Amino acid sequence: MKDLQAFFANNARSDLNKEIVVSERFKGQDGKPMAWKIHSITEAENEEYRKGATRRIKGKNGTQQTEIDQNIYLAKIIVASVSFPDLKNAELQRSYGVMGAEELLRKMLFPGEYAALVQQVQEINGFDQGMEDLMDEVKN
């Protein structure tokens, strides 16, 4: 019975945090690259983002099928996992001429920087496999 206590909510780490440098382009007052802060999300949150990225499409013979938009799904997970900078900050969004945290990420990061952030967010959330494997798992 003692071993079971390790799984009790009060003994489990519920939120993992990590600081990462996504880009050398964002420098603090000291001239050093600014670290982004990311944290883990729960499976309940993940399910919500997956549902938010799922669309119904017409299949053959008028049947309805569901499809997950991988880009929307990833952006939702990233926004939920980034705690600094505050991607929902209106002033930050205005500085890039966008509205919305997902659009902000697309505008402020280069493709390689975005990919590096995706990788770190996947890692902190326990995704050990590649995104294609993850998307296949999500679809099932």
From TrEMBL:
Domain of life from the UniProt record: Bacteria
Pfam families: Phage_TAC_5
Protein name, per record: Phage XkdN-like protein
Lineage of the species this protein comes from: Bacteria, Bacillati, Bacillota, Clostridia, Eubacteriales
